[in-house]
Amino acid sequence: MSNTVSQIIVAISAAIILKNVWALVFGCMAGHLVSLIMSYIIHPYKPKLKINTKIVKELLNFGKWVWCNNCNNIITFIALQGDDIFVGKFLGSISLGLYQVAFKFSNIMASEITHVIGRVTFPAYAKLQNNVVKLREASLQTIEIVSCLSFPLASGILSLGHDFVYIFLGKKWIPMVPILHILTISGLVALFREQVGHYFTL
After folding, report:
1. For the whole prediction, is pTM greater than 0.85?
2. What is the C-alpha separation between 202 and 188, in angstroms, rounded?
3. Using H for helix, E for strand and C for coil, what is the string for the chain?
4. 75 vs 201, higher pLDDT
5. Does pLDDT of 50 surpass 70?
6. I need a labelling partner for 146 at 20 to 30 A (CA). Which of 19, 70, 98, 138 fits?
7. How far is it, in rounded angstroms, from Cα 100 to Cα 161?
8. Distance of alpha carbon 22 from the chain centroid
9. Over the chain, what is the mean pLDDT?
10. Are 30 and 6 in contact, with CB atoms under 8 Å apart?
11. Residue 68's pLDDT is what?
């Protein structure tokens, strides 16, 4: 949350002052910086800058196989950015801007709910890996929590999306409302498909 809030504040402030695309860059940098600082404040573990040659050799030996996956990384990049490339190429920069902002708001469920819950539940699942019954119970509880958070959020976006866009972004952004609705429904389906998929793989 600190990352998102600081990124929005800095990006909007920089956009008002600079009136160019660098506002997005400064916002992104501010978000990561605040996230780094907060990680040191919240967590008791304080990593120190120290080079351990033994561990470096182990990481390099293991990492050589990771470098071999560059092709997969390129495919993943195309899969994640392909929609932006398609919209920008065939529909133009204005449509791309509308699509990206709509995607940003509709993706709140995945970015602010699933990712945070995933970071918390992963170590919890690791501790329960030898107890399938409790692992399934924990997974089901996670689905319930995600439902309680995502359904109201998605309903709010669908019902108040037009008013929200008009008040906070302005009349020029109204054409993005139908896209926002479609992406919100799509994001909700993808969110539950991921959570339910985890449950049935246990």
Report:
1. no
2. 22
3. CHHHHHHHHHHHHHHHHHCCCHHHHHHHHHHHHHHHHHHHHHCCCCCCCCCCHHHHHHHHHHHHHHHCCHHHHHHHHHHHHHHHHHHHHHHCHHHHHHHHHHHHHHCHHHHHHHHHHHHHHHHHHHHCCCCHHHHHHHHHHHHHHHHHHHHHHHHHHHHHHHHHHHHHHCHHHHHHHHHHHHHHHHHHHHHHHHHHHHHHCC
4. 75
5. yes
6. 98
7. 15
8. 21
9. 81
10. yes
11. 67
Helical axes 177-200 vs 132-164, angle rounded to 10°:
180
Report CA dihedral (110, 114, 115, 119) to the nearest 10 degrees: 180
Q: Which two tokens stand for residue 26?
A: 């400064």
What residue type is assigned to position 141 of the chain?
Q
- Answer yes or no: are the C-beta atoms of 158 and 181 closer than 8 Å: yes
128 near 135, Cβ under 8 Å? yes
Q: What is d(CA 201, CA 143) in angstroms, rounded to the nearest whole number?
A: 14
Instruction: Assess whether pLDDT exceeds 60 at residue 13.
Output: yes
Q: Name all contacts of 152-155 with Cβ < 8 Å and 24+ positions apart.
A: 153/108, 153/109, 153/113, 154/109, 154/184, 154/185, 154/187, 154/188
The whole-number pLDDT of residue 152 equals: 82
Which pair of tokens denotes residue 80? 């994640």
Amino acid at the residue 72: N
Sign of the alpha-carbon torsion through 48, 52, 55, 57: positive
Specify the pLDDT at position 199: 58
Q: Tell me the C-alpha distance between 91 and 120, whole Å.
A: 40
